[in-house]
Structures are given as C-alpha cells and as structure tokens.
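Q: Hi! First time doing this. I have a protein sequence and I read that you can turn it into a structure. Is that right? Here it is:
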Amino acid sequence: MKALLEKLNIKDVNPGGCTGMDEWITEPDGRELVSYNPATGEPIARVIQVGEQGYEKIIAKAEERFLSWRMVPAPKRGEIIRDLGQALREMKEPLGELVTLEMGKIKAEGLGEVQEMIDICDFAVGLSRQLYGLMMHSERPGHRMYEQWHPLGPIAIITAFNFPVAVWAWNAAIAGVAGDTMIWKPSSEVPLTAIAVQHIANKVAADHNVDGVFNLLIGAGRTIGERLINDSRIKLTSFTGSTKMGRRVSEASAKRFGRTILELGGNNAIVVAEDANLDLAVRAILFGAVGTAGQRCTTTRRIIMHKSIAKELSDRLVSAYKQVKIGDPLQEGTLMGPLVTEAAVEDM
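A: Yes, that's right. Below is the predicted 3D structure, encoded as structure tokens:
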C-alpha cells in the first residue's frame, strides 16, 4: 500500500485544499479527516480539511483565474484536457487501485472508472473545436446575426463516494474546454482519490503555465458544503448524490438564480419478456445488482418478469448469486467488495 500511495503523492497527512502546483492549503486549526480502507477498517491516510479562510482563498482564486481562462481559445483549452487524458492513461493502474483501496469497488471497476475519465477527456478535446453557434439572416441589408456561447464562471463539482473520480472528470473535462474554472468538493468518505487526481491535474496545468482552473476543496458538508452551494460566485453547481441532498442543492441555487446539474438516486427495474434470452438476462441482472456492491444510482432494484419464465429465471439467479465471491476487492477473482462504511452496512 505504501508504494501505491507514494506513486500518487499521497502522504500520511495531506492538505485538503489546492489551487495549483505548489499551492496546497493547510489550515493550522483545520479538522482532521481519516480515510479508512473499507475492506479492513484500517486507516489509509489523513487529510486536514479546509475551513473558512481556505475556502475564501480557493473561491477567490477560481474567480480571478476565470477572467483570463475564458479568453483562452477553446482549442487551446482542449490541449490541456488532451494532456490531462494522457496523464491519466499513464497513471491508470495506480489510480484505479487507489479507487479500489479507498472506496471498495473491485479492481476491474476501479480501472474502468479511470478509463471513463480518459474517455471523457478524449470526447472533450473534440468538443473544444465544436462549440458551435447558430448564424441567422437579418432584415438589415449587409448584416447577419450569430450566437456565441460564453463561459459561465466558477462552477462547483460535488461528487459522491461511489464514483470518486469519474464523475469529477465528466464535469471537469467539459467545463475546462468550455472556459469555466472549477471547485471540486469530493465526498468525505473518499478524499484521497481526489487528492491523487489533483496532483495529476496540477502537473498538467503547470506544464501549460496555468493555475486556478482545477481547484480542490475538502471540507465538512454542514459548513463548507453549505457555504459552497449558497455562494453567489458559483454560477453552476453539478451535484451527484442523494435525492434528499439534491433537493437541498436545487433550492439553495434557485434562491440566488444559480444553475444546477443534478445526478440523483434511482429505483431501477429490469423487464424480462417471455421470449428473452435468459443467459443474457441473468448476467445483466447480476452485474446490475452486485456491481459496486449495489451502491450506485443505476443499481438494479426490481425485476419485472413474465410469469411464464418466473421460476426458471429465479432459479438461475439463485444459482448465479451463490457463485459471487465476496472479499478483498484488490484480489483477483473477487466479484463483490465491501460497502463503503460501517454506517452504510447499518443502513441496509
């Protein structure tokens, strides 16, 4: 574990705020946050959370950098995202293992999550040359009208524990090419993956002589999180989490006419028809329910099946579930790891 953490620049005690290379923020009286390995219950490392002073530094930096970042041509912004994708390719193995170590999803899922980061960077690079606007005729001779999309400003990205790095990338890569700066508040249950990604982003940004675009804010949700969603300097909040908290984010943003992107909970069903391929159905149902130990908004919760196949499908599912190996998510052959915390187990 030590070699893995060193490769990702994770120390025993880590600052919880950052605005760029060599711009980490540690508050002397900041509260300590311990990250635990959900498979063993043992501590991995510690983070000193950001307080009020650190919060203000991070938001101010993002706001200041936005004024120049928005003027950088979109294809040039895309070059930074392209390099970010390449850096993630080079660090895919250790970063994927850290996702598994800290969050508990199996190694294949951890690596797959980093691949999603790489894929969205590739997509965003192309998008940087496709920020089109309409062009229209005017009733005035010799004139035309056209639309041009402008960056919004600093945006907040609030992510959940179950996809600790991919969700940030989905937002950050597109926000980056669109000309927005961003403040990332990760889940307090998986802070180390965010710190590792921040180190990678810092190096890429420094290679382009840029800071303040990718910003990290690790702090308590009841104080720092509340301040973030109510801050009028934040033009858009992208939130991933529970429906209950999503409603809170939506209300707080609406009061100040802020914009939101909300990815919330689900209650998902798989419908199995009378003539369905049951081999395919069993595999889909099993992975949909067992993947990430069921801790996903897309997790299968219900099966709606035709009564003529109900017994056969049920018998097949019971047999398939008996073959699911539960254990250490870093071990080959494990198909289901632990829930993220003891509290998650008690809530089941």
